[in-house]
Specification:
It is a single chain. The protein is an alpha/beta fold. Helices cover 37% and strands 22% of the residues. The strands form two sheets. Strands 1, 2, 3, 4, 5, 14, 15 and 16 form an eight-stranded mixed sheet that branches. It has an eight-stranded parallel sheet with strand order 6-7-8-9-10-11-12-13. Helix 8 links the parallel strand 9 and strand 10. The radius of gyration is 21 Å and the shape is globular. The protein binds N-(iminomethyl)-L-glutamic acid and fe (iii) ion (FE).
């Protein structure tokens, strides 16, 4: 296998061309090529254009056409691989019981306050072995791959102590080695206050900064640092302190911001120059303006709003204000136990009034920017990784239109076909 691939005759080649986030009205500019093709050599995209252009380039460049595996994408849309830029992928146990409580009227935060919620998953993750977490992670990644995901971000935060946080991050590194999906690790030790630190949140942040973060940083196990900046969890001041120190240790800042109540998380993200601010259900007008001005990627997670029966983030207003919006699943055992990119897309269309084009930009180039990777993934541009999705349908507009149904037929990672719905009953190939 030489990772050389030619995809030709795409009804729509949706390039999402660009090397940085698309802000505001630029999100609708997808650089679509009819009867499109792309050539990948040694895992990297080398040529993008009409089929006629790419075939004549292969001839002119004196390349041997037979050195390329070929896929005829007639009648299908071809897009960059999706980037799921916000997940909590590695955890033990489940919260199926809590789901029932929430349906019966308990609130997410009430359940956390009485020691359940995230803290329940902390107990289950502390007691799970590295091997158990790895097997669970691989199964979840297989499911994500079928939804077209070629890069996923994964947060720790179900340990809240050094050993378990490091165990989670080590499992992520192993998943990255074992699975075709690239796994991008985020340290989120400040995901909840462990019971032994209740009322002593600052002391807990001290422990994270003195013991846990240095271990994660010196082992090079995390690229980003995230914090649950929320009423009853960590304040704006505590979040600022943590993220400032994390940056000094080489970790780029992200925030769970304004998820349950308006707290000024979006403003803090802008002040710190965070890579992204995520959730934002209750982001203020000022916070939206600040994110647009500072270039923080506003990462919206409509599956979580749906699952919590909460109001949706104001995605339309954010784009109209000039923000770069990304969409992600927030896959986790509590507030959104779903890896369905298809559901996220439908909810963004129906409840946030995003167009199909904006949704595609939000799942590709802007999600890549939310992981500081817009230079290498997120679009079909020469020089980028050969990460590609082929749909069953002729246009990207089918993605939200097929409400909650997965329109992905094939997934290519670094130039290699790694998933095909049409072969082996759709198993990873
Ligand atoms: O993004 N809000 C905090 N963290 C997650 C949920 C984690 C959990 O409930 O296990 C979120 O919603
Ligand atoms: Fe989250």
């Amino acid at each position: 296998m030489n990772n050389n691939l030619l995809i030709s005759h795409a009804a729509e080649l949706v390039t999402c061309s660009g090397f940085g986030p698309k802000k505001g009205s630029a999100m609708a500019e997808l650089g679509i090529i009819g009867d499109g093709a792309l050539a990948i050599e040694k895992g990297k995209i080398v040529r993008v254009g009409t089929t006629a252009d790419v075939l004549s380039w292969i001839r002119a460049a004196d390349r041997d056409r037979r050195a390329f595996d070929t896929i005829d994408a007639s009648g299908k849309a071809v897009l960059p691989g999706f980037v799921d830029s916000h997940t909590h992928l590695v955890f033990g146990g489940d919260r199926v019981e809590e789901f029932g409580w929430r349906l019966a009227g308990d609130s997410y935060m009430e359940i956390l306050r009485r020691g359940g919620g995230i803290l329940r998953t902390v107990a289950d993750t502390r007691s799970a072995s590295h091997e158990e977490l790895t097997v669970l992670g691989l199964r979840r990644l297989d499911s994500m791959l079928a939804f077209g995901v070629t890069t996923v971000e994964s947060k720790s935060g179900y340990g809240l102590d050094r050993d378990t946080e490091i165990k989670q991050l080590e499992v992520m590194a192993e998943l990255n080695r074992l699975h075709p999906i690239d796994v991008v690790p985020t340290f989120m030790g400040a995901h909840a206050v462990p019971p032994e630190f209740k009322g002593r949140e600052d002391a807990f942040i001290d422990v994270l900064l003195e013991e846990v973060l240095p271990a994660a940083a010196s082992l090079k196990l995390a690229e980003f640092c995230d914090v649950f900046c929320e009423k009853g969890v960590f304040t704006v001041a505590q979040s600022r302190r943590l993220l400032t120190a994390a940056r000094q240790a080489g970790l780029k800042p992200k925030l769970h911001a304004d998820e349950i109540v308006p707290l000024g998380g979006a403003e803090l993200a802008a002040e710190l120059g965070a890579v992204s601010a995520d959730h934002l259900l209750h982001a203020s007008d000022e916070g939206i303006r600040a994110m647009a001005a500072s270039g923080v990627v506003a990462t919206l997670l409509p599956g979580t709003a749906f699952s919590l029966k909460a109001p949706y983030a104001r995605g339309r207003a954010m784009i109209d204000a000039g923000c770069a919006v990304a969409l992600a699943t927030d896959f986790n055992p509590g507030s959104c136990f779903s890896e369905s990119v298809a559901l996220v897309a439908a909810l963004a269309a129906i409840h946030m009034n995003l167009s199909a084009g904006e949704i595609v930009a939000a799942l590709t180039i802007n999600a890549a920017a939310a992981l500081d990777r817009a230079q290498v993934i997120g679009s079909l541009d020469p020089g980028k990784q050969g990460d590609v999705v082929i749909l069953e349908n002729p246009s990207h507009r089918f993605i939200p239109y097929r409400v909650g149904v997965n329109a992905v037929e094939k997934v290519i990672k670094n130039g290699v076909l790694v998933y095909d719905k049409l072969s082996q009953g759709g198993l990873r190939c």
